[in-house]
């Protein structure tokens, strides 16, 4: 019988007084008299890492989330000691660590508190599993708002919410349901017009409480591992997001076709059915670049096999689809069927590549093929083997993309829908249980898939999409929001999910247009496609159990609306591609919630519906049935209604009339929006002009256009075209200046310039200081002019 009360004590433990510290280059370590160590590392002047251990030493420092290819550096670092605290000062912030209890506070250089501990770091010993339950609580100011945390089906502003991070297969999830498929333990705080970020890099099951339990306390904790978090200072939300995205990494450019419209269903088979779908798209002239094959293309759901009855000659079929402009994307799940005649299974068994239970036997679980074993993707040797398996699919058959599903990992007929927690993983030489590896299992599968597809698609770029992901997965893969439902509420959820993913580093994301489960009405599908074309990843996907969900499954009006909006997406491809370039170059999110766009305006802090697509297009979907208009908030500045060209002054909520074939769309005054002609698929047409829609503004505005060969890696060698435009509008003058960078020469030779909102009649046009003739009647009636692409300055003068 244990009588020692100290051993029986299972409550929270805290650091005691600091007894020593040492400073070495960019790090400062503080030691307490109860063996707690805090290591503070300054990576940048605005990026500081805080790492705690309670055992007197640190375990191996390893993270799947951090992009190790990027180096960091600071401009200024000063460490000093005063009577009650130690101070670490950079050129952006100062951090104070209290000597008595290790609680810390972070201030700006004007002594304003940005973030301070409430209880600070504390922990609870985990007697069941070993190690600690690690906890952190921060004081929250009145009016503080919280954003981010990746894929959450709730309000954009997380104030008052408690959320859980544990990758979970949540079929037909509901609003506010927790947890979901992805784990991004990163949030953004905003108070007193200052933004900061916290990235809690811990792969165990984690929780975040944003003033839910206690009004003025924000806390986060994990069921194991270290208290290891990064503090990011803005003060602008843009700075926080770009720093976080740079820390966890950015993808390479996708091929342009991956930004086109995609069609998917569980399942298209046999081959004749897939061909009918392809033919119907071309017949109806609804652009489409990719068709997806779900698990029924396989032989008994065995990965890397083909059902020869349904698809007797997949290489021929894929080639024929390619001739008509369709890329084929196939699904690959992690479950490998236990079948002694199945070569993939035999190879993995021979090399001991499967996950094992704690006592030695292989992890066994039921998925679509029946009983399966599961590769341990945290083992580098397994990832290398897995990558090699894509040779036949990609280089021989010609598949252009791979879709990873069920990789939370999902397991059927067990209470928790996933692996037992005693399953063991290599974790890149840091052996652990599934408690630690669960949240990164899907990311490591997607990582291995990405390297395989990239290897065999070369010299073209790879395309991979995953359902489950941890922070940093954006380096390897795109994603979608999982098994949603054909309801108006889910349309609302999808809008918020993709905005949140965008400011959480995972920009290349979309939802299943129309809903995966159940059947949408024609009106709901039309409204969803009107939103979905403004998401970076654009795909209709349905379970097939509840009826057809191709555009032609609805009436002619819905077909026309689908065509109209998919056409608009294809016209906007150069704008979307430019958004992606800015995302990978600078970490700028492709979708910007209004609070990101203008955090100074308190009216944006609780807006959910409106977002800025790229830098200059404002989108507000219709989210209710029978709506021919809605109220929406237009952010500060001047905007043009896309449909009517009517100019609107922002900074207020307005009523916007719409039709069934429209949603509220506005373009920022001064913007130059590049457009291609409508194509049925990327690369179908050779065209000789780039359309530039120029929206007049009195004052200055910058716009950019990025282009390259649309696939391949020449862009990394400088073979790209980056156009920087500046418009300067005056009372009777519009000046357009153009600067070009890069060695890529586009195929077109001229710009078709559409002038919107010009407040004067044109008297004279000069190109590079040379007056040119123009058709005054055409310009006045149709408001466009044709200009050679080589110009550097265009002056339009009014009467």
From TrEMBL:
Pfam families for this protein: DUF5110, Gal_mutarotas_2, Glyco_hydro_31_2nd, Glyco_hydro_31_3rd
Any one GO molecular-function label of the UniProt entry: hydrolase activity, hydrolyzing O-glycosyl compounds
Record domain Glycoside hydrolase family 31 N-terminal: where: 38-209
Keyword hit for Hydrolase: yes
Entry keyword set: Glycosidase, Hydrolase
Domain Glycosyl hydrolase family 31 C-terminal intervals: 587-673
GO biological process terms, semicolon-separated: carbohydrate metabolic process
Residue ranges of domain DUF5110 in the record: 689-757
Residue stretches making up the Glycoside hydrolase family 31 TIM barrel domain: 251-579
Similarity section: Belongs to the glycosyl hydrolase 31 family.
Name of the protein in question: DUF4968 domain-containing protein
């Amino acid at each position: 019988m244990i009588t020692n009360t100290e051993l029986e004590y299972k409550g929270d433990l805290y650091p005691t007084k600091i007894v020593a510290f040492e400073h070495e280059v960019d790090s400062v370590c503080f030691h307490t008299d109860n063996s707690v160590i805090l290591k503070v590392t300054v990576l940048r002047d605005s990026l500081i890492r805080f790492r705690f251990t309670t055992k007197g030493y640190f375990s191996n420092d390893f993270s799947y989330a951090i992009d190790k290819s990027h180096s960091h550096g600071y401009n200024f670092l000063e460490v000093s000691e005063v009577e009650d605290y130690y101070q670490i000062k950079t050129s952006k912030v100062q951090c104070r660590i209290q000597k008595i209890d290790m609680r810390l506070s972070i201030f700006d250089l004007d002594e304003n508190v940005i973030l301070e501990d409430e209880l600070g770091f504390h922990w609870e010993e985990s007697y069941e599993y070993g190690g600690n339950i690690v906890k952190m609580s921060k004081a929250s100011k009145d009016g503080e708002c919280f954003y981010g945390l990746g894929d959450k089906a709730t309000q954009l502003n997380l104030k008052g919410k408690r959320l859980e991070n544990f990758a979970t297969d949540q079929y037909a999830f509901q609003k506010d349901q927790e947890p979901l498929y992805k784990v991004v333990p990163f949030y953004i705080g905003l108070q007193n017009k200052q933004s900061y970020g916290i990235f809690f890099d811990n792969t165990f099951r984690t929780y975040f409480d944003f003033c839910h339990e206690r009004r003025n306390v924000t806390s986060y904790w994990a069921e194991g591992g270290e208290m290891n978090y990064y503090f990011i200072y803005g003060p602008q939300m843009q700075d926080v997001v770009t720093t976080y995205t740079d820390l966890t990494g950015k993808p390479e450019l996708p091929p342009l076709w991956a930004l086109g419209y995609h069609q998917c269903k569980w399942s298209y088979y046999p081959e004749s059915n897939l061909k009918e779908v392809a033919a119907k798209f071309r017949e109806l002239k609804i652009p489409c670049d990719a068709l997806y094959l779900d698990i029924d293309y396989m032989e008994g759901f065995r990965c890397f096999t083909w059902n020869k009855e349904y698809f007797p000659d997949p290489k021929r079929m894929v080639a024929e689809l390619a001739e008509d402009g369709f890329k084929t994307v196939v699904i690959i799940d992690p479950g490998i069927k236990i079948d002694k005649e199945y070569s993939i299974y035999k190879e993995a068994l021979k090399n001991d590549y499967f996950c094992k239970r704690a006592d030695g036997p292989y992890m066994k679980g039921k998925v679509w093929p029946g009983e399966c074993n599961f590769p341990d993707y945290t083992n580098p040797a397994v990832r290398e083997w897995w990558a090699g398996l894509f040779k036949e699919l990609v280089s021989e058959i010609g598949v252009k993309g791979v879709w990873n599903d069920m990789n939370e990992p999902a397991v059927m007929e067990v209470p928790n829908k996933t692996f037992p927690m005693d399953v063991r993983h290599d974790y890149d030489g840091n052996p652990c249980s599934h408690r630690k590896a669960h949240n990164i299992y899907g990311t490591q599968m997607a990582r291995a898939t990405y390297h395989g597809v990239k290897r065999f698609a070369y010299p073209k770029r790879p395309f991979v999409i995953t359902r489950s992901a941890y922070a940093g997965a954006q380096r390897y893969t795109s994603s979608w929001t999982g098994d949603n439902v054909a309801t108006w509420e889910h349309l609302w959820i999808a809008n918020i999910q993709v905005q949140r993913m965008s400011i959480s580093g995972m920009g290349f994301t979309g939802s299943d247009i129309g809903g995966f489960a159940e059947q949408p009405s024609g009106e709901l599908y039309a409204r969803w496609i009107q939103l979905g074309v403004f998401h970076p990843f654009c795909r209709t996907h349905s379970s097939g159990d509840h009826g057809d969900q191709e555009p032609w499954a609805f009436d002619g009006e819905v077909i026309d609306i689908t065509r109209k909006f998919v056409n608009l997406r294809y016209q906007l491809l150069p704008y979307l591609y430019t958004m992606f370039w800015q995302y990978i170059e600078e970490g700028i999110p492709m979708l910007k919630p209004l609070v990101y766009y203008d955090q100074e305006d308190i009216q944006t802090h609780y807006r959910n519906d409106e977002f800025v697509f790229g830098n200059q297009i404002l989108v507000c979907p219709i989210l209710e049935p029978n709506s021919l208009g809605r109220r929406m908030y237009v952010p500060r500045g001047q905007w043009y209604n896309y449909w009517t060209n009517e100019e609107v002054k922002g900074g207020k909520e307005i009523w916007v009339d719409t039709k069934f074939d429209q949603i509220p769309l506005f373009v920022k005054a001064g913007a130059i929006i590049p457009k291609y002609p409508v194509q049925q698929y990327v690369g179908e047409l050779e065209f000789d002009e780039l359309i530039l829609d120029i929206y007049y503004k009195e004052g200055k505005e910058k716009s950019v256009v990025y282009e390259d060969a649309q696939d391949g890696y020449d862009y990394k060698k400088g073979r790209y075209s980056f156009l920087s435009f500046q418009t300067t509008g005056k009372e009777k003058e519009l000046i357009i200046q153009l600067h070009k960078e890069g060695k890529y020469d586009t195929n077109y030779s001229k710009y078709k310039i559409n002038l919107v909102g010009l407040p004067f009649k044109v008297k004279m046009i000069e190109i590079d200081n040379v007056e040119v003739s123009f058709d005054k009647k055409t310009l006045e009636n149709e408001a466009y002019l044709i200009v050679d692409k080589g110009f550097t300055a265009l002056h339009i003068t009014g009467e």
